[in-house]
Amino acid sequence: GAGVSQSPSNKVTEKGKDVELRCDPISGHTALYWYRQSLGQGLEFLIYFQGNSAPDKSGLPSDRFSAERTGGSVSTLTIQRTQQEDSAVYLCASSQGGFPADTIYFGEGSWLTVV
Amino acid sequence: KNQVEQSPQSLIILEGKNCTLQCNYTVSPFSNLRWYKQDTGRGPVSLTIMTFSENTKSNGRYTATLDADTKQSSLHITASQLSDSASYICVVSALTGGYNKLIFGAGTRLAVHP
What we know:
heterodimer; A: 115 residues; 0% helix; B: 114 residues; mainly beta; globular
């Protein structure tokens, strides 16, 4: 696609429910990142995928968070048993090869509200 | 600890004026420094990327500088426009495990008034 696509763009869920957020990176991009941005805060790293390598999951805040990337393309971020503090914008980004000076392109984000 | 600090936190200027945003970082091993523009409710959009050996880079009315010795960067906006109203985020890459681990500043919120 032309850009990084994320869905849903907005999600309101009840506390305790599970949610899935989807990211379609730019076609051909092998590197994919997930970040979280709470209201008025900077972006917080969650997870990084590069090709077929084992992902860097060091940013996932708890075991309620998981992510997978199928076929080296689409990625899904899953939050189980959502809590109110999970309310944030979840941003996905991709880059061509994961090289140091690659431009990293962001999607528009999935706005999650846990009530 | 890897950190990126930006100042000012927020800034209001009049249309047509220039402004400079600051970024100080303590990131190791340093790979590159990026400036992003984030409109309210949108994803960040890349403005510039500078590696260790580059000390200035321009993108239209945006000019970024980098002093790798003092670990400081600035983003200068010339002849501001209303559409420049946004958050400007300084992002420093640490080359860790063979990839860019991005460390984000909290951003400077710029408001351009007519």
